[in-house]
Amino acid sequence: MEYHMLSPGSSDNLRLPSFWCAHCHRAYLAVTGRVIRFRADGLHPHPAALTLCPYFDCSASATHEGWRWTTIQNEHPEYLVQPELNVIYLR
After folding, report:
1. pLDDT tens-digit profile of 42-51?
2. Ranges 19-23, 35-39, 54-58, 86-90: which has the least confidence
3. What is the pTM of this model?
4. Domain residue ranges in the chain
5. Cβ–Cβ contacts within 10 Å for residue 76, how many?
6. By CB neighbour count within 10 A (0-12 exposed, 13-18 middle, 19+ buried), where does 49 fall?
7. How many CB atoms lie within 10 A of CB 69?
8. What are the backbone angles phi and psi of residue 50, rounded to the nearest 5°?
């Protein structure tokens, strides 16, 4: 098993989409996250990767619990267009 952190690239002209974790209720950039890679073995013949919420105190799957920030913002127009990191936004 290998553990990796994804990190956003640096580009002044690129604005990355934000996501919201339904488990911890915090926003994060699309390319951030914690990736756990599992090697193939006798029981599981294909390697697999699991992408988790980037916050270390949250164990939610970014694939299943991550919502596009625009979806949350449509329900809450008072929320910022670009959410702040590590702030709890209730749904």
Report:
1. 888 888 889 9
2. 35-39
3. 0.77
4. 2-7+17-75
5. 11
6. exposed
7. 22
8. -120, 125
